[in-house]
Amino acid sequence: MSTLDGMTTGTWTLDPAHTEVGFSVRHAGISKVRGVFGTVSGELTVTEDASRSTGLVSIDVASVDTKNEGRDNHVRSAEFFDVENHPEMTYQITGLDLTDGEGTVSGTLTLRGVSREVTLDTEFNGVAVDAFGTTRAGFTAATTISRKEFGITWNAALAAGGVMVSDKVRIDLDVEFTAPGSQH
Question: pTM of the full predicted structure?
Fold first, then answer.
């Protein structure tokens, strides 16, 4: 049985001020471009057997920030996220498999209207009460997806061979949830 030591049962709320959802993708085969999403919300419903816990994380894909306005606008376009038709990316949590604070979170990632099962390598960082009396729980998670599996196929061939943007995208999450009934 999976456990989340210190987390009470009930619905915990994602704290966007203490959460970061980021990604990196290889550019021109020689470096990585990194970005973050500024608008994220969600909740995690913790059950006594944590493996049966569920939740939903929603990301406003228009809030993408790669520190380059032109690139951000291209990523928002129909060639990538297509925010006009698909403004949100979601991750529906279907279960946790954590032993001694490490393991996986299983769920369904929906991006551009395409849903795929995605497993996150996850570390449960524990529970703490902050200086204002709010009980918080933290998680770190990561995975790598194929953007082609979500219908994101835009690319450009390079003169020396290869392509502008790799298919593989790494997703990194640092997430805090607040206990049921807490203010954040």
Answer: 0.90
